[in-house]
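A.,

Following up on our hallway conversation. C-alpha cells first:
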C-alpha cells in the first residue's frame, strides 16, 4: 500500500515540473507579446505604416517561447526524452534547410525590423542613395522592401537588405531646412561685384527663400543670402549664393526659378557666363 502511494507521489512530482514550465511559458508569452504589441503600434505611428505589417514579431516571440517550453517538457520526462531528442534534431535539420532556402527573404525581414527600430529614415522623408544618386520621398516601408517616390512620379523599389547597407543622405531628419548652394561661372571680364549683387537681390526676393540665420548671426549683421567667390578657375570666376529653403522641394524650385531669372538679368547687364565655346572663341580671336 505504501509502495503504491510512493509511486503515485513520484508520478505527481514528475508532472509538476512540466506543468510549471507550460504555465510559466504561457505567462511569459503573454507579457512579452503585450510589450511587443505596444512597441509595434508606437513604431507604426512614427513610420506611418500599418501595424499589422509587423505583427509577425508578436507571433514569432510566442512561438519561440512555446517551442522552448516543449523542449524542456520533453527533457524533464524520462519516457519522452529520447523521442524529444529525435524530434528536435529532425526539426533543427528542417529549419536549417528552410532557412538556407529563404535566407534572402529572412534578410529583408530582419533588415526591415532594424529600419523600424533604428529609424535611419521614415515614411515621408526625402532621401538619396549615395551609391547611385537615386533618391526621392520614402512612400512605404514593408517587410520586404522600401518604396521611394522618385522623379517623374516613378517608384524606386529597394530591398530592405540592400538599403540597410547603403549610405543614405536624409534631408528630412532632425531639420527639414535646406541650404541651397546656387553657383554660376562668369568670365573674368564680367563685373563680378554686380553679379554678386544681382544674385543676392533675386534670391532674397524669391517667395520660397527663408531666413536661416541664428539670432547671433542677425545681431552680427549677416546677410539673409550670402554670396561669395569660392574659386577662380581657368574658365572664369565661380560665384556661389547660400540660400535657405524650408525643404528639399522648395530648394529645387528656387534653383530652377533663379537660373532662369539670372540668365535674363545677366544678359541685360552684359555679365557673360563662362563656357568652353566662349573660351575657344576668345582664343581664336587672339590668334
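Then the amino acids I'd put at each of the 287 positions:
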Amino acid at each position: 500500500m505504501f509502495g503504491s502511494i510512493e509511486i503515485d507521489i513520484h508520478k505527481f512530482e514528475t508532472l509538476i515540473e512540466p506543468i510549471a514550465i507550460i504555465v510559466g511559458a504561457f505567462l511569459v508569452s503573454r507579457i512579452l507579446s503585450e510589450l511587443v504589441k505596444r512597441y509595434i503600434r508606437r513604431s507604426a505611428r512614427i513610420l506611418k505604416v500599418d501595424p499589422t505589417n509587423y505583427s509577425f514579431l508578436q507571433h514569432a516571440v510566442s512561438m519561440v517561447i512555446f517551442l522552448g517550453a516543449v523542449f524542456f517538457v520533453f527533457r524533464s520526462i524520462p519516457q519522452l526524452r529520447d523521442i524529444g531528442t529525435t524530434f528536435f534534431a529532425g526539426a533543427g535539420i528542417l529549419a536549417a534547410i528552410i532557412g538556407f532556402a529563404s535566407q534572402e527573404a529572412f534578410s529583408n525581414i530582419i533588415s526591415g525590423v532594424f529600419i523600424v527600430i533604428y529609424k535611419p529614415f521614415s515614411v515621408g522623408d526625402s532621401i538619396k542613395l549615395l551609391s547611385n544618386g537615386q533618391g526621392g520621398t520614402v512612400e512605404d516601408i514593408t517587410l520586404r522592401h522600401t518604396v521611394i517616390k522618385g522623379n517623374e512620379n516613378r517608384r524606386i523599389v529597394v530591398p530592405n537588405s540592400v538599403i540597410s547597407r547603403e549610405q543614405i543622405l536624409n534631408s528630412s531628419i532632425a531639420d527639414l531646412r535646406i541650404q541651397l548652394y546656387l553657383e554660376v561661372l562668369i568670365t573674368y571680364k564680367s563685373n563680378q561685384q554686380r553679379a554678386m549683387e544681382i544674385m543676392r537681390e533675386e534670391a532674397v526676393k524669391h517667395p520660397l527663400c527663408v531666413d536661416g540665420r541664428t539670432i547671433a548671426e542677425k545681431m552680427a549683421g549677416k546677410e539673409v543670402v550670402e554670396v561669395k567667390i569660392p574659386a577662380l578657375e581657368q574658365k572664369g570666376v565661380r560665384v556661389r549664393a547660400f540660400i535657405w529653403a524650408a525643404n528639399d522641394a522648395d530648394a529645387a524650385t528656387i534653383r530652377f526659378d533663379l537660373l532662369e531669372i539670372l540668365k535674363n538679368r545677366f544678359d541685360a547687364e552684359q555679365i557673360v557666363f563662362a563656357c568652353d565655346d566662349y573660351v575657344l572663341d576668345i582664343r581664336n580671336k587672339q590668334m
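Residues 1-7, 278-287 have pLDDT under 50 and may be disordered. Curious whether your intuition agrees with the design.

B.
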